[in-house]
Design a protein that fits this description.
The complex is a heterodimer.
Chain A (H helix, E strand, L loop, with lengths): L1 E9 L4 H14 L3 E6 L9 E9 L13 E4 L2 H7 L8 E5 L13 E5 L1 H9 L5 H13 L4 H11 L4 H23 L1
Parallel strand pairs in A: 1-4, 4-5, 5-6
Antiparallel strand pairs in A: 1-3, 2-3
Helix pairs in contact in A: 1-4, 1-5, 3-4, 3-6, 4-6, 5-6
Chain B lengths: L3 E4 H11 L4 E4 L6 H13 L3 E4 L3 H13 L4 E5 L1 H6 L1 H9 L5 E6 L15 H6 L9 E3 L4 H18 L3 E6 H5 L1 E4 L35 H21 L3 E4 L7 E4 L2 H16 L4 E6 L1 E3 L3 H8 L6 E6 L5 H9 L5 E5 L8 H14 L3
Parallel strand pairs in B: 2-3, 2-4, 4-5, 5-7, 6-7, 10-11, 10-13, 13-14
Antiparallel strand pairs in B: 1-8, 6-12, 9-11
Classes of the chains: A alpha/beta, B alpha/beta.
């Protein structure tokens, strides 16, 4: 089993954190994992991205040209990464921030309104990264939902109110992800 | 202990503490400033000392001073900063002091860029400073290995009374991987009274110095150093052989980050039936010369293929070690670009075909 996931958005969207949560969840399942950030010189307002490699064997190359799963949280990320999704892979698009559909027929694409989910359940769009984490697990099935839920619970352990809302957002994202991947 | 998901740079700091090193002097530079950030917070918790020096020149001289006082000490930097440490490196080798230096290499020359590179191989293995000296150079490929070698580096530097350098790159420092800090057992520092300046009350005084005005004495000292490096080559050569026990026709040679990409490439090509193995030097000095030379004499080995993030620095050592008995091919990316698996596969496929296997 080898999954290479690239998560991309603009700085401040919490995309690095989403990647870390995913990596920790994989570690909790005793899988091999590497989390690689983009640390090159980037312009303010440009794209921030990280790649998470999850495998049942030691991770070889942490450099991935064509991930089998890509999450695009904003339009510049979509433009940059849409051509890179591995054939047969999954492209998850944050439809709250862009109305776009890939012409590619060799990939599965899933539209999830991540900001809207967060706004509906918390009043702000700040937890869009949690919504997309749920959606990613729902649409790809790369890890059991419980492992992600456990990581989120641990991360927000000191803030019960925030935890409660985020678990709802995570669940909603997950459900929409499962549904979208079916359809 | 359960594994922790940790960034390479932070793991360097924690591993040093686990190794019993409570003194760290440094000046921040991308892509390894997180070592200092981590230790600025963590060292005071365990009674250690971190001083952010005014420059790398000062940081390295602080390391010289602390090492002379018999304290386990280390510093970390990245290429341009390491160049500034060349003077202290030479003096510490000349004074036979143990310490650990970490170079998280970035692309040069000059200020260059901040992205991963292996272009400091020559500087590291030949010695950045003046004089006939070497550091022991260790190049891990994963965050776990980074931790393991950090913990082993201190006793190694004390065994030889010679600094040891851990060499990585921005990728290994910035990425997070699972680490177990108990995978290698830390060893206490051996006695320091016989050489360190710990206060001479009741014993003969110790002098830390690299000055020999008598040329015969200096020559004798240089012979002593040469014997020390020879002993390293006999007792502390480290390497990994990957898929080399079924008589591969082609042997790739790569270290650090690049070796990981080569492994992935080899896995793909092996699935196509190509018998390719990887020889990964871990100690770059002492270089695993004897082992590579043995491989070069084997009939089934038709060639060697070096992959490096430099214009061919380890390449020279591979040619020397193998006596060029078989063709040595070369592929590199440079300037901060890490070779991707696809282009590495293309290169190794061509190399394999070239050998006529």
């Amino acid at each position: 089993m080898l999954n290479e996931v690239t998560l991309a958005g603009f700085g401040g969207q919490g995309i690095m954190t989403t990647g870390k949560f995913l990596a920790e969840a994989a570690l909790g399942k005793d899988l091999e994992v590497a989390w690689v950030p983009s640390y090159g010189p980037e312009m303010r307002g440009g794209t921030a991205y990280c790649t998470v490699v999850v495998s049942d064997r030691p991770v070889g190359s942490p450099i991935v040209n064509n991930p089998n799963i890509i999450v695009a949280m904003n339009r510049p990320s979509y433009d940059k990464f849409e051509p890179m999704v591995k054939s047969g892979g999954l492209l998850l698009i944050n439809s709250s921030l862009m109305d776009v559909k890939s012409d590619r027929t060799d990939i599965i694409q899933v539209q999830i309104p991540c900001n809207q989910i967060s706004i509906d359940l918390s009043g702000t769009g700040r937890s869009a990264n949690i919504a997309v984490l749920g959606a990613l697990i729902g649409a790809s099935g790369i890890l059991p939902y419980e492992t992600i839920e456990e990581v989120v619970t641990r991360k927000f352990a000191k803030k019960p109110k925030v935890l409660d809302i985020n678990l709802k957002i995570l669940r909603k994202g997950y459900e929409l992800g499962v549904e979208a991947a079916k359809g | 202990m359960a594994k922790l998901l940790m960034k390479g740079a932070e793991a360097i700091g924690e591993a040093a503490i686990r190794a019993g090193c409570l003194a760290y002097f440094a000046y921040p530079i991308t892509p390894q400033s997180e070592v200092a950030e981590y230790l600025a917070k963590r060292l005071p918790e365990v009674g250690g000392t971190f001083v952010q020096a005014e420059s790398e020149v000062a940081a390295s001289q602080m390391v010289y001073g602390a090492a002379g006082a018999g304290v386990r000490v280390f510093t970390s930097s990245s290429s341009p900063g390491v160049s500034l440490m060349a003077e202290a490196m030479s003096y510490m080798s000349g004074s036979e002091l143990p310490a650990v230096f970490v170079n998280i290499v970035r692309a040069g020359p000059g200020l260059g860029g901040i992205l991963p590179s292996q272009s400091d191989y020559n500087q590291a293995t030949r010695g950045a400073g003046h004089g006939d000296y070497h550091f022991m150079i260790l190049a891990p490929a994963t965050v776990q290995e980074l931790v393991d070698w950090m913990i082993k580096a201190f006793p190694l530097s004390e065994k030889y009374m010679n600094p040891v350098m851990i060499m990585g790159d921005g990728l290994i420092a910035q990425m997070m991987e699972p680490v177990d800090f108990d995978s290698v057992k830390a060893e206490d520092i051996i006695e320091v009274e016989s050489w360190a300046t710990t206060g001479a009350k009741g014993r003969k005084r110790n002098l830390i110095n690299s000055l020999f005005l008598d040329p015969l004495k200096l020559e004798e000292f240089n012979h002593k150093l040469a014997a020390k490096y020879q002993r390293m080559a006999e007792e502390d050569v480290y390497y990994e052989k990957y898929l080399m026990d079924d008589e591969p026709a082609l042997i790739a040679v790569a270290y650090g980050t690049t070796a990981r990409i080569v492994k992935t490439a080899i896995d793909v090509l092996r699935a196509e039936g190509m018998k390719i193995g990887l020889f990964r030097p871990i100690s770059l000095f002492p270089f695993p010369k004897v082992e590579l030379r043995e491989e070069s004499a084997k009939d089934h080995v038709r060639g060697f293929s070096v992959v490096e993030m430099s214009n061919g620095q380890m390449l020279d050592d591979v040619k020397w070690a193998t006596l060029e008995r078989k063709p040595v091919g070369f592929f590199s990316r440079n300037g901060g670009i890490v070779p991707n698996p696809e282009e590495t596969i293309d290169f190794l496929r061509k190399e394999y075909e070239r050998t006529g296997a």
